[in-house]
Automatic annotation (TrEMBL):
This is Major facilitator superfamily (MFS) profile domain-containing protein. Keywords: Cell membrane, Membrane, Transmembrane, Transmembrane helix. Its main location: membrane. It comes from the Archaea.
């Protein structure tokens, strides 16, 4: 198991993994709070299923187009748009959960969940491109895949368990605010931790051929 942590010797991979973990934590919190709150407010599992369906199906339908956006535009611009949506929409959900009821709440939630799913998948595609640009060894790629999968599982297990407690103690709207704060921290970290890389991490530099777009250890 210790083998998979070797890939973290690369400072940029380490930062990407941390950023991805923050996104997974936020997603686990707001999606769990949304499911719990919709069920408690509407007492109908159908609407929970609809919300989950919209969250997954729209993002999956648009996935090829998200890949095109990542290829077409500079990575910094794509990251800014994706994470800005991930920051603002949980805050918007918090407001909706406090002021709306009934079918108005259902429609408003669906209007937020769809772009949230798109933004989450957009960032996932971007991170995958960045990883592939940094990792030029099959062994390191295997270690990174194992590490990401393990950390993702750990984050989801921890925060899925924690979300129910947070909703019970604080209410769903405050739980969305916690997700917002996590995303905001990730948004700030994104531009601080990668400030020296964006000039080289553009649509032309991030390749799928396994070749690093720049010398990793030269970035501070």
């Amino acid at each position: 198991m210790a083998e998979m942590f070797k890939v973290l010797r690369d400072p940029l991979v380490k930062r990407l993994v941390l950023l991805s973990a923050l996104g997974n934590a936020s997603f686990s919190i707001w999606s769990g709070a949304l499911i719990i709150d919709l069920f408690l407010r509407l007492s109908n599992i159908f609407y929970v299923g609809v919300a989950q369906f919209v969250l997954s199906i729209i993002a999956n339908i648009l996935l090829p187009y998200l890949g095109y956006l990542v290829d077409r535009f500079p990575a910094r611009r794509v990251a800014a748009v994706g994470m800005l949506l991930e920051v603002l929409l949980p805050l918007l959900l918090a407001v909706k959960m406090r002021v709306l009821t009934g079918f108005y709440l259902v429609y408003a939630v669906l209007a937020s969940v769809a772009p949230l799913g798109v933004a989450t998948n957009l960032m996932g595609v971007l991170f995958s491109k960045m990883y592939r640009g940094l990792i030029n060894s099959q062994e390191l790629a295997r270690q990174l895949t194992s590490l990401r999968s393990t950390l993702r599982t750990i984050v989801f297990v921890v925060f899925d368990s924690l979300t129910g407690v947070l909703v019970y103690l604080l209410g769903p709207s405050f739980t969305f605010i916690i997700a917002f704060l996590i995303e905001l921290a990730g948004f700030v970290f994104l531009f601080i931790a990668f400030r020296g890389a964006w000039s080289k991490w553009n649509s032309a530099a991030v390749k799928d051929d396994g070749k690093p777009p720049f010398r990793v250890y030269s970035v501070v």
